[in-house]
Task: structure prediction
Amino acid sequence: MLFLSVSHTANTSLFGKVNIMNILAVDIGNSNIKFGLFIDAERQPSLSVSGGDSQAVSDALRQCWDKLPVAKRSTEGRKEGVIVFSSVKPEWTESFRQLCREQIDEKPLEVGLGKDVDLPIKLNTEFPADTGVDRVMAAAAAYVVAQGPVVVADIGTAVTVDAVDGEGNFLGGAIAPGPELCARALSSETAKLPEVQVQQPALPVGANTEQAVNNGVFYMAAGFLEYSVRKFAEELGSWPQTVVTGASAGLFKDECEFVDDFVEDLVLSGIVLSYKKKIADTPDS
Result:
């Protein structure tokens, strides 16, 4: 069955009645920071910048925030919206908070265990506090649409493949180096292997060293994904819907026929879901 787009989850009613509002969702990853703006639940084109480029991060924040409408009752021109973020890189977390305070005078809300916004699904992992919040965000967004067992792969700096059972519990998964990280490691740790920009192989058998490295890294990632899904299916007792997201996900669209759908920026959708659940669970004053 074709996996439905999760873009509509910004306005989902699965967590009860919630008010439509403007949300700037921010995914602070290991290499990049992604900005997803939702205005009246309508998703705008997302932005992705290098997390190490402070000027680019500042410009992206300002560009997104300026698109929000001014609150009707504001006499100071304050925007009608909220910033919600998740982070897997602690050193960038505080700098992002500071940037929001200094540049737009806003306090962003962080998603996570014991944070401003709680996780939207239960973690059945051995050490929940150590489970990457980006993995949970992607899994939650996928489960809300699948409403059944689902496997979510995020292909970026790392390849994470995670499972959610039929009751919506995050079970954990498998983590491996991402394609670009593998390619850099091969180049830096060997004498003659070149560093390649990984792409879909032109031919099954690499005719030169560069093609061989490219094919090896590509097939390793694709094989890891397929084998993980198969093993997870054995654990879940049925073949789950499988969704792939992440910066490098597009490379594998034509190779992984077992994948139900490739979804852009699934983590951002999970951040929005988390905030919507927080609002729905908050008693009316």
Notes: Residues 163 and 223 are 17 Å apart (CA to CA). The mean pLDDT is 90.
